[in-house]
Every structure is written in structure tokens, then in C-alpha cells.
Amino acid sequence: MAGSLQLVACSSQPTNEKQNMSAEQMQHATADVHSFAQPTQAVARHLDLDIDVDFDRKVLGGRATYQIENLTGTDKIIFDTRDLDIEKVYLGEEMTETTFRLDEGDKVLGRPLIVDIKPDTKKVTIAYRTRPEAAALQWLNPQQTAGKKHPFLFTQSQAILARTWIPIQDSPGIRITYKAKVKVPKALLAVMSAENPVQKNENGVYTFSMEQPIPSYLMALSVGDLTFRNIGEHTGIYAEPATIEAAAYEFAEMDKMLVAAEKLYGRYRWDRYDLLVLPPSFPFGGMENPRLTFVTPTVLAKDRSLTSLIAHELAHSWSGNLVTNATWNDFWLNEGFTVYFERRIMEELYGRDYADMLHVLGYQDLQETLADKGADNPDTRLKLDLAGRDPDEGLTDIAYEKGNFFLVNIERAVGRERFDAFLNKYFSTFAFESTNTDKFLDFLRKELIQGDAQLAEQINVDGWVYAPGLPADFKAPRSSRFAKVEQVYEAWKNGKPAAQLNTGDWSSHEWLHFIRMLPEQMSQQQMADLDKAFNFTNSGNSEVLAAWFLHAIRNNYVSADKALEEFLVRVGRRKFLVPIYKALTASPAGKKKALAIYAKARPNYHAVSTVTLDELLK
Ligand SMILES: [Zn+2]
């Protein structure tokens, strides 16, 4: 998840130093404006994390021990921190205490931890504690879980929140391997973005190992009353006991997705692929933590209709986790590729007409974002400039959907066969490395465009990557299944009663398209008729529900009030919350309602959501 800036690799480095750098160091030199670390001087390569989880005090405490490489013989190494209490720092195997300081930083980036080292220092151990307000951590009380008996904890590190629970060089351009030992209360199981235990043990101490190097934003931990269920040989699900059955049914096809993904873009490089189903306050649809995707329970629709989200998170095992955006200004390289890949997986499983529906819905989201931001807004370029801002602001549909349609455009220009071969080569060439927009475009020119002027014009790199909005000649996606929905909609608009509409075996995507087409202004009678015929207000499908609530709010359809409030209090997924709260604030009465609900719901939301909503509702 995140956005981009026109920084050229090494631009901040003095010339003589540039000349002496290896290719790998050059890669690290891509300036990341969202980290204080200086990895061209001294860089962490491996982390041994040893922490206790204290639910009573809402604190993680322990030690982060790094194996470091001092590249220039410098006398300091810099880590990112935010709201961390640093107790002591030690050097080497003999654990000699060393001096350190926390410099002034800012609210978003936190404070740099500057540790005094020696030219030959290979190991740095930091004793630290988190604070209850650590933004990455959400501590849930038992009432906020499905089982209602035990507390629950989960992390969300992307984009720059890893530094709120581990002192770390928190840039996506830096990769580390890690091992961890985590102590938790006895009734609970801990899991991480690593090789995981599958059952609880007697002493509540769990060990983890991640042998492939990962960027810091993929550091992840969750602790709760969790149980595990195998799905396939290499796939499985962690969830609370109250949720495991529903999850196992919903995600039964995850093994097929893995097979389809490997067929498209090469071997899965992370051994296992498991899911962790979180309580509903999780702020995102999913988070692609390696080996263990964290997923919202709002996709448990009971009919497997929202599982493209799993295809998306799985696709990140290639685009993002394997080949990683070097800075948040290149976020489209993570998300645009992943949306494209997600829809290719869904096409393999369910056919072209299914994937076409996803493209059209994504295009609608993109149009909305473009209208919202203004088509000339520099933030609608694929390559962003997020300097001085929270990189979270780059997490928009531009990176996801405009990025996807750029790749669709390339596929159309060169043909699918050539494009697939190109993507395979891209993933294998840059595996376990960071990449940026320039690096990708160089590879594109070398491997695909190859000096063909006509092809270069068709692909139109400048129009897509560096210009705002969409290129004028872009053809909007079409869906044959949606064309049928549009016929039904026309019949309704021409007076056919809702109860007589032929909605056949519509999937949730077709329902969503129908609801999105409904006019902004509807009579109470129209709303009631639709609701009576299709039971939208009580839908078990969160996508349908969220789209319907927008109409209910605009048309002051009070029959949906109770369900709306219940939804907002229970669900913390930002994608749903933002448009709903926004719609409420459009009128004074709605704003009053929004503030009353928010007061009740806010304790259930993760900081990622409250940062956005506090601003919206102030
Ligand atoms: Zn994603």
C-alpha cells in the first residue's frame, strides 16, 4: 500500500561516494524521505526480537538485536522510532553498554535513534518498550472479539508504523531476515509474518523464523485465542474458534489460487501461504504479511463472493513482498501490479467475464477518486511526491487502479503472451530486491519496447506515469455481465417494480453495480420497494451494505439507521468508513448523527482509520 516522488537514485549522495558504491548499495541509496536511517553508512541485515506481550498495560517490551554491516566505518547507526521508550543499547556479543540519543523528529516520522558504534561493530542490542498509544498496535478487549472471552492484539506496520513497535530501519528499501521469541498469556497463541506454530503450548512462549529478507513494513504480530485449520498442503487458516468454520468455507479455494498464481508468474517463494482472520476492527481489507496474510472478516460473505481480496493479498507475494517499492513514492509498483495480478488469478479461476466485472468496479472507484482530487492534481500521477507528508496519503485508488490500467494498456499493446513473459522475467530478475519507477521503466524499455517508436507511443509511459489523470485515449473497461445488469436497471427506472426485476443469480459484484447506478435522489417509496424486494438493509454482504447505506443517508431513509449504526460500530475497515462518514457529514443533521456514532465507535477503530476520520469529522 502507498505513493511516489521524482527522486533519482543516489541524488543525495556526493559524487565520489557514488562511484565507490556497489550495485546493492546504489539500490539502498534511493532516498527515502520517510526514514531517518542512513543505510549507505550502516545497515541492519538481521533482527533477533525477544519481547513480552503485556495485555494489562498494553505494552510490548524486550530486546531487538540487530546484526549490522558498517559500510563506511562510521561511528553511528540510525534507527527509526516513534513513541518508543529506549532503555539501554549494547554492542557486540559481550553486550557492552553504549551511548545513544533520540533526536528531535516529527509527529509522523517519529524520532531517529542514533546509536554510537565502532567501525567493527557487528551487533547492536536495543532494550525498549512500546507505549499504549503505539499506532501500529491495536489492543482489543474480549468484547471486541468474536469469542468475547480473551483479549486480542494485532499489528499493522504499513506504511511507516513498524517503528512504533520495534526500533527499526523503517524503509521499504532495506530488507532484513528475522527470528523472534514472543511471550504471551497462556490461553493465547502468537503468530507472525514468519514460520508459525499451529497450536498453543503450555508456557506461552513462541518462536518464529523468517529466512527470506523482508522490508520492515512486513513485520507483523498477532496474539489471540487462535486456532489453525489446514486447507491444502501449503495453505491454511488461523482464526478465533468462533470464526474458523465460516473462514474455512469462505476460503476453501485459496489452494487453487496459489496454483493459478504460480502458473502465471512463477514459483511461490515463501513456502507456506496462510491467512489470519482478524476481528472486524482491522482497518484494511487485507495486509500481505509474508506467509501470513492478515484479513478482515468483512469478506466472510458466506458465498465466496468477495475472495478476490485473497487473490490480491496472495499476488503481493510477488509484487510487493518479493519485488518491493523502494520508497512510498513508488507505491504503484506494489499495488498497481498486484491489482492486475489479482484479476488475472480471478480470470484463471472464474473466467474473463468475472474479471471484467472487477475491472469495471475498479474503474468506477478510480473515476470517483479522480473527481474527488481533481484531474490535474499531482497526486493522480503514478509517481508521487509525498515528501513532508504521511505516506498513508498515497494509499489511494490511483496507485491501485490507475496502476492496474497502465499494465492493462501495456498488455493490450504487446499481447498477453509477451507481457506475461516480461512479468515473469521482472519478478525473477528483481526477486528479494527493492525497485523504483525508474528501474521498472528502464527494464520495460530494454525488455519490451526495444526502441520500437510506435510501441513506445502506444504504451505512453509519460502519459501514465508522470501526467495527472488518465490519458485521453484510454478506453474504459466493459463487462458483458454488467451490460445485463444495466438492462435490468433501465427496466426499473422505467417503472418496473423492484419485486419483478429479473436479477437471476447475480453475484455480489452485479448487485454492487446495480446499487451504484441507482439515482442520487430517490423517494421513500422507491427506497422501501428496493429494500423490500432485495433486503439490502440486512444484507450479509459488506460491499452491498456499504453501497446501500450511501443511498440511505442521502435520501434520509431512516429504516436503515439502526443497521447503519451497528455496522459503523462493529466494522473498522477504512474503505467502508470514509465514504459513509463523508456522506453523513453532507448535512448538519447527518453530521450530528455521525459525531454521535463516532463517539461510540472510535474505540473500536485502529489508528490507521482514526487518523483519517478525526480529520474528516473535526
Ligand atoms: Zn495491496
Task: Describe the structure using short key phrases.
Zincin-like; alpha+beta; binds zinc ion; 618 residues; 5-stranded mixed sheet; 20 helices
Summarize the structure.
The protein is α+β, with helices and mostly antiparallel strands and 618 residues long.
The appropriate CATH architecture of the largest domain is Sandwich
CATH topology of the largest domain: Immunoglobulin-like
Tell me the total number of β-strands: 21
List the ions, cofactors and other small molecules found in this model: zinc ion
Coarse morphology: globular
Taking all residues together, what is the mean pLDDT? 94
CATH class of the largest domain: Mainly Beta
The parts where pLDDT drops under 50 for at least 5 residues are 1-29
Say which CATH homologous superfamily of the largest domain is assigned: tricorn interacting facor f3 domain
Detailed description of the structure:
The chain has four domains: 1-27 and 34-221, Sandwich (Immunoglobulin-like), CATH 2.60.40.1730; 226-317, Zincin-like (2-Layer Sandwich), CATH 3.30.2010; 329-344 and 352-466, Neutral Protease Domain 2 (Neutral Protease, domain 2), CATH 1.10.390.10; 480-617, Peptidase M1, leukotriene A4 hydrolase/aminopeptidase C-terminal domain (Serine Threonine Protein Phosphatase 5, Tetratricopeptide repeat), CATH 1.25.40. The protein is 38% helix and 20% strand. The strands form five sheets. It has a seven-stranded mixed sheet, with no helix packed on it. Strands 15-16-17-19-18 form a five-stranded mixed sheet. The chain has a four-stranded antiparallel sheet with strand order 9-10-14-12, with no helix packed on it. Strand 6 (100-102) and strand 7 (111-116) form a beta hairpin. Residues 1, 312, 316, 335, 338 line the site of zinc ion.
